[in-house]
Design a protein that fits this description.
By secondary structure, the protein is mainly beta. Helix content is 4%, strand content 32%.
Length: 447
């Protein structure tokens, strides 16, 4: 199957709603699905992609059954939700009393499924060094970063742990990125950014393992020496062999961060590939964290208490909030201009032109108070022109309306009140009060 998706971009701003639940939520079992709407392309565009990238093309090569959406993975995978790519099945299926186990089975089961992929991959062939590769699954993503560092989080897992450590059955995967400023040994001068932290070693079964040679007949210490592998990184390995914990794989790595230095506003391509090595038996998988693929960027939002986004003179303020994706070690100077028909310091209280987000913090909220000037005016605007990244600026607008005060009630009869008493009045208001807002949310609510 070959699926191509063109011209899609990640929005850098969203006004949202936060739902809070007070009920205690207990750990839940890992779930995996590739039912609608989780098509191979949807898994990338709506699950994997985060902030700070504009994606122009996504291609999937491989069987649709080999990718899926997972959730409730925090306890055993280390990632709560995201996308799983596997050389077998993503979801367990039973037909004619025969069960083919997928990622969603416990570690006490085996997953060994030939997904019949006919995909070839030049770079995996290079890594395989003459061994056969099978069951290839691949995503190709073309994107433009808006900041200088691409990052995403992942974990690798395999049914070949621990028996096949230091053997020729060393299932392989890679994240191959190419583009301006990158000069590596793979197709298009790409480099593989699926590496053990602090090293240039790729994340493989023969590099990240329990630190001992497996008991399979083909396992040999020579396969874990030099450039072929290592037994020195067992601290990143977690056994799931024979357990009732999910996922199905007998071993899984810690969560790693793939990272690449990129040039903002230039186009790059990354290929996420996984394959069985040697034969199609015993599957492997890679878990990609939801919303983690991105470069990070400043976010901004303008909010007012009214439905139409306006504030009234001498009433409740509006707010503009600036956010960073993570804390910084030094103050972050915001790049913005204030324009609009309203005058800073005249129609609203003065707003500084040198705002910063202090070191160690991730956001700054600026209140906007409209001044009662006693004049009858048309609606006025305050426009924040904000630099969100090196290749993107956005405008955020708050409007100012004249104060609309309710006239005093016209009482037809005298009303006498004593201290502490109240009276109910009835009347018609000349001010039109809008109905309460309604909305439809398509976001998943997670508990």
């Amino acid at each position: 199957m070959r699926i191509i998706y063109n011209k899609w971009s990640v929005s850098l701003l969203g006004l949202g709603m936060i739902l809070l639940f007070s009920d205690r939520v207990q750990a839940q079992q890992l779930e995996v699905t590739n039912a609608a709407p989780f098509t191979p392309i949807n898994l990338i565009t709506n699950v994997f992609l985060g902030e700070g990238v504009q994606v122009t093309n996504v291609t999937y090569d491989g069987p649709a059954i080999s990718v899926g959406y997972f959730k409730n993975g925090a306890a055993n995978v280390g990632l709560d939700r995201g996308v799983v790519m596997t050389t077998g099945r993503a979801v367990t299926q039973t037909e004619n009393n025969i069960t083919q186990y997928g990622v969603d089975a416990p570690g006490s089961q085996n997953t060994s499924f030939n997904n019949s992929s006919n995909v070839l991959d030049v770079d995996l062939n290079t890594i395989a060094a003459g061994s056969d590769i099978n069951d290839v699954v691949r995503y190709t993503i073309t994107f433009v970063p808006v900041s200088d560092t691409l990052r995403f989080r992942y974990a690798f897992a395999s049914e070949e742990y621990p028996e096949y450590v230091c053997s020729k059955f060393n299932d392989i995967f890679g994240f191959f990125i190419s583009g301006p400023g990158i000069n590596g040994p793979y197709q298009g001068n790409a480099v593989n950014i699926a590496q053990i932290p602090g090293t240039t070693l790729p994340v493989t079964i023969n590099n990240v393992n329990p630190g001992v040679v497996g008991n399979h007949a083909t396992a040999n210490i020579a396969n874990c020496q030099g450039d072929l592998g290592s037994l020195a990184y067992s601290q990143y390995y977690n056994s799931n062999n024979g357990s009732g914990n999910y996922p199905v794989y007998d071993g899984i790595t810690d969560v790693f961060t793939a990272e690449a230095i990129v040039i903002p506003c230039e186009e790059y391509t990354i290929r996420l590939v996984i394959a069985d090595l040697g034969d199609s038996n015993y599957d492997s998988g890679v878990f990609l964290e939801a919303k983690s693929f991105g470069t990070g960027t400043v976010q901004a939002e303008a909010m007012a208490v009214t439905i139409d986004g306006a504030i009234a003179e001498d009433c409740e303020p509006g707010y503009v909030t600036f956010k960073l994706p993570a804390e910084l070690d030094e103050d972050f100077v915001l790049d913005y201009n204030i324009t609009g028909t309203a005058q800073n310091g005249v129609d609203y209280e003065p707003i500084p032109t040198d705002l910063v987000i202090p070191a160690g913090e991730t956001e700054l909220t600026v209140p906007i108070y409209a001044v009662q000037d006693g004049l009858t005016e048309n609606r006025e605007s305050i426009i924040f022109d904000v630099k969100l990244s090196q290749c993107n600026r956005e405008n955020y607008t708050i409007y100012i309306d004249d104060a609309k005060l309710l006239p005093p009630p016209n009482l037809e009869t005298e009303v006498a009140l004593c201290e502490g008493e109240s009276v109910q009045l009835q009347g018609n208001s000349p001010v039109v009060i809008p109905p309460p807002p309604s909305f439809v949310s398509t976001e998943e609510v997670r508990t």
